Amino acid sequence: MRKRLFAMILAALLPLTLPSCGGDAVPGEMPQEFRGDGGRDFQKAMHQSAFGDLNDICQSETGYYFQFDSSLYYLEGESGRATILCARPDCAHDDDTCNARAGAYALWYSGGQLYFARRDFEMSGGAAVEHGKHIYSLNPDGTGLRQVTDLELGHTGGTLSSFDTPICHRGMLYFVYNGVIYRMPLEGGSGEAERLWGEEYIKGGNSGGYAAQDPNEPRYTLWADGDTLYFMVNAPQDDGVRRDVLYAYDLLNGTAAKVWEVPSAEVTGEWETTGVKATKWYILEGAIYFYLSGGDFWRTDLSTGESVKLADTHERTLYGTAVFSDDCMCLINDHPMIDPVTGDYWLGSGLREGGDRVFLYSLEGELIRELPLTALFDELGDISGAYPVFCGGGALYLVADAGRMVPIPAGSGQQKSRCDVLCRLDLETGEITEAARWEDWT
User: Fold this and answer.
1) Which of 104, 220, 317, 379 is spaced 20 to 30 A from 368 at the CA atom?
2) Whole-model pTM?
3) Taking 80 as the threshold, does the pLDDT of residue 343 lie above it?
């Protein structure tokens, strides 16, 4: 069943508190194994989204929670239907009085509760006053909003511009503050923050806000698997080039070691971002699986450093976007945006388009099947891009960008309207069903 949901214009500034919208408990049963200890383990598959407007996702016993356009949604695992996380019948879901309105930059599920991180502001005298980054908790039905801790440690005067996403693993929160990795209980106070690794990176300039991006600023991607915390650091190396370098922190003995770095072209051949970063990566049981757009699927044993090519994906599609799970690897045959000036692929731009077929691989690199996205084009017509979001429960979830060029109201020229459709692709049958639709954006 198609359910049309009209998206709200993105709120630039959000208030510090959100009143509850009320509602009953979320129904439904998840026809799949629920990984981790009641959602307390780091949810690896939920950190795979290639769609910028839908990259905060977490899994519960019955389905998934995600954020789109600053609002929270629940995606039922059995029906594959998405609904906004607000059960108040008279709520229009179009302003900050709705409890589904979160404005989060990280979202996770742990011990039966939803949590999210948000950067808070307050309007004063016509100006936005920043109050820092905080962690909030919600009941799974969207009620009971409360602030549980803050992520502002106040150790330095220079505030960094990037948002290194915090993660939750086994009831502990791991986050980056001014270039240093910290750990503290999920509902602990900032005074309980324990410094794990790194030296403070102090940038000059204004101490009261997020200044322009610093080209030398390190960027962290946090990950966890079992008793190991991983962090991928993208920072300038000795030769001045920014590269991905992976470290492993043993949570039992408190030691850290460099275990991987982005391979050279001599090892893997050329790819879209050669020598800088892997297009997508996934860590599982002491190995890193990675995809190189313009190249292939690879696996490196992090204890020995041995790398093995898993699949020659470039034989089926030169470029693509991948998502991983604990069970499989999915690859959609999209490509970099075409440069409108030169007509060539705009390599390294990060902008993608196209994609009409999904290739499903095992973790050993065996091609299991090809799944066409024909039904999407039959239903939606011309699609500028189809973006994989995550893989779970025997399905690949993706977003189709079906926006159209429309006249600018009371003006000249055209602009692109927004129509984003969240779809579920059954990895066994190839059936595509629509979970949610956000349209009439401008």
Assistant:
1) 379
2) 0.86
3) yes
